[in-house]
Design goal:
Number of helices: 14
Strand order of the largest sheet: 3-4-11-8-10-9
Distance between the termini: 31 Å
Largest sheet: 6 strands, mixed, barrel
Radius of gyration: 33 Å
Low-confidence stretches: 67-79
Oligomer: single chain
Structural class: alpha+beta
Order of helices and strands: HHEHEEEEEHEEHEEEHEEHHHEHHHHH
Length: 430
């Protein structure tokens, strides 16, 4: 009972200092909670942000891949059908182990055509294509999401579900060269035929696509005589940044041990997703756009490092604040501590009393700080990434351990001061 009366008396006499200690701990705990939760969730957030800039995996036929690798060209429409992939196989991408990580995909067919006597490259693709998979599931996919950065200057996207397929979307540079606008009709002639197409939209992409035009896949196939075939498939997938295992597997999966292979195959590395795509699409080679994959890893590493440093600095600040406040508290209670020593109290008993007071205060501050951090994390998620941050249960345990450690470290200078107090000096006012 005496022990608890001492603690109660300390809170009554020094409630302002205890409140400041609790606030200091709460601020440190809130920043640590917010940063750690964001840090653990930031990988998926950054991945999703990068997906807004297009595909990160390219799938072509084996012969087209060899041609590109050896001669650094992509081939042309004169190549036989072995240089193409079958359009009916495109949907198999959604049957791989990491199917749910495939956010969007679209086949692409390019062909040389003539418009008003001039040669251009036309691109055929899916816009919002509906697929019924062999698994019984259905999916809507296409370039509407893969080209989300395009600005539609006039008109609207081609809608495969309701629009006339005799429509095209033209780039801003192409529209200027040919003096075309939405509603105009242009005659397109390919190697196997021609037809009149209405301009559905004028877009600005900021790249080479501004110099060409896009049309439904079925139409470009008719013009080029490649019905049922596609040149490549662009895939956007949520991936895990590469590590040493992923780099090793990307060179040669056969070099992996069974345990390494299972871990790699069951992790959403871009190399494992490419490997699985090649398993389900015959005669295919899937490769990652390395610049995107490497940028993702670098951005993630730097972001996590920044958040780790912020967490460390906030905890250091909390430790310094606790140190000053607890030291000040011990100095104010020097007479009380000297009297306890004089009547026979051991140093260990006095240390236990002071630490109990501080830890009770720290626990109160830590609980308040954790919920404050929960709110801060959601503000960061909504403001920066436009979505909520998933709160991890283990963060509560990590923050509790960190706060207890910071509180103990911050109390050490005060404990050293207390140990040096001599009852005879303190009680005589020296």
């Amino acid at each position: 009972m005496f022990f608890f009366r001492m603690i109660k008396g300390a809170y009554v006499r020094q409630w302002k200092k205890m409140l400041v200690i609790a606030v200091t701990v709460a601020l440190g705990a809130s920043i640590a909670t917010a940063m750690l939760n964001v840090m653990l969730d930031v990988g998926d957030k950054i991945n999703q942000e990068l997906k807004a800039y297009g595909a990160n995996i390219n799938v072509v036929s084996r012969s087209a891949s060899v041609l590109s690798n050896l001669y650094e060209i992509e081939g042309d429409d004169e190549v036989n059908v072995d240089s193409y992939l079958k359009e009916k196989d495109v949907g198999k991408i959604k049957t791989i182990f990491w199917a749910f990580n495939i956010t969007d995909f679209a086949p692409v067919m390019e062909s040389s055509v003539t418009v008003n006597g001039k040669k251009y490259k036309a691109v055929g693709t899916w816009f919002n294509h509906h697929l019924e998979l062999d698994t019984g599931e259905s999916v809507d996919t296409g370039v509407i999401n893969l080209r989300s950065w395009w600005k539609i200057k006039s008109g609207e996207w081609i809608n495969e579900q309701s629009s006339d397929l005799k429509e095209v979307m033209i780039g801003s540079n192409f529209a200027e060269k040919e003096n075309l606008s939405v509603g105009a009709v242009m005659t397109v002639t390919g190697k196997k035929g021609g037809g009149d197409y209405k301009v559905r939209a004028v877009y600005s992409s900021g790249d080479a696509a501004d110099d060409t035009f896009y049309m439904p896949m079925s139409e470009i196939q008719k013009l080029s005589g490649t019905e049922g075939y596609v040149k490549k498939i662009e895939v956007s997938a949520l991936t895990t940044p590469d590590n040493e295992l992923a780099v090793k597997a990307a060179k040669n999966p056969d070099q992996l041990s069974r345990a390494e292979y299972d871990l790699w195959y069951c992790t959403a590395y871009v190399s494992s997703i490419c490997y699985q795509i090649q398993e389900v699409i015959p005669n295919s080679v899937a490769t990652a756009y390395r610049q995107i994959a490497e940028s993702e890893g670098e951005i993630l590493d730097k972001t996590q490092l920044l958040m780790t440093l912020i967490t460390i600095l906030s905890l250091i600040g909390a430790a310094l604040g606790i140190s000053n406040l607890v030291t000040s508290s011990v100095m104010e209670r020097a007479g009380e501590i000297g009297l306890m020593k004089a009547v026979g109290a051991k140093n260990s008993q006095i240390i236990f009393l002071i630490l109990t007071e501080i830890f009770i205060t720290a626990i109160i501050g830590a609980v308040a700080g954790y919920f404050m951090g929960f709110g801060f994390a959601q503000v960061i998620g909504r403001t920066v990434f436009g979505s909520a941050i998933d709160m991890k249960g283990m963060i509560a345990f990590i923050v509790a351990v960190l706060i207890l450690g910071v509180t103990l470290i911050g109390s050490l200078p005060a404990i050293r001061l207390m140990l040096r107090l001599r009852p005879s000096e303190v009680l005589h006012g020296r």
